[in-house]
Amino acid sequence: MRVPGLRLPIRPPYPPMETQSVEAIPSGEGWQYEPKWDGFRCIAFKDGAEIYLQSKNGLPLARYFPDVVEALQAVKARRFVLDGELIVRVGSALSFEELQLRLHPASSRVQKLAKEHPATYIVFDLLVDDDAQRLTELALRLRRPKLEAFAKRWLAGDKLRLSKASTQRSVVDRWFRAAGGALDGVIAKRLDATYRSGDRKGAVKIKKMRTADCVVGGFRYASNAKVVGSLLLGLYDAEGKLNHVGFTSGLSAQERKALTGKLRPLIKKPGFTGRAPGGPSRWSNERTDQWEPLQTKLVVEVAYDHVSDERFRHGTRLLRFRPDKSPRQCTMEQIEIKSAASVAKLSI
Description:
Oligomer: single chain
CATH topology of the largest domain: D-amino Acid Aminotransferase, Chain A, domain 1
Shape: elongated
Largest sheet: 6 strands, mixed
Number of strands: 18
Structural class: alpha+beta
Number of domains: 2
CATH architecture of the largest domain: 2-Layer Sandwich
């Protein structure tokens, strides 16, 4: 795919530099730390009046974020390429669901969403500067000062922000403690690393794992066999309603077979009495409404890394069944997160 009109040393589709997952924050000299934002990765290209936003997997995003396009068009620098993250704030928290709602085929709907909850583009790397010079072959210790100078000169307003960065371990530890709200974790990048398009070398990501006790409110069959494919997880809210908050899978073939025999006798409506699987959500897929409700008798402990819009952002890892735990003890309080206001200043 070639984008007409872009006369830049880097053109879409351009694979962004990626990261490796590790369990611990690396220490020592030679590392730059950054917040890991809970949003859509985006490379922004500008050539005169033409703006092109590219997703992590190389697809165009501009039609879904007209507010960000407008903000980039207002930047007086004529040519540049940035790497960053698109986020949407609702009140004092970030909403990944609002981001997904933007991926709508109707432009009128997208425009309405953009007015209700404007997006912000948080920038963390400069790939082509305002002189149209490619910077990807420079080490990060040289690119970052150029990015900061670029941001100071050109970026303004709430829609375009420079993400914080630090080489101090005490700072990244503070960010990591805040992970789970506005932050998806932290990133550590080698200061001597060039920008390696499509490569995971030179940067790592660290997410905080937490655990929660959840009610098994239902299950889905596997796509290729009449055995359990995933368990649907629920937590009780303050009104006593059981809300669907996510799923867990990763079961072995032997575990699936044994679990199917255990769950079938418990099949009974309604399962979830509050928010249920298959409700209005951009997280839905074609199989979302195909699930079996269960009597609320089983409790499992799961490990998760992130919560967004009162749901587990990703799939969870099943740790164990908890026959010692009452389902009514499984409340939303376990996964409630602090306001994002405490970390909002990271992007200023």
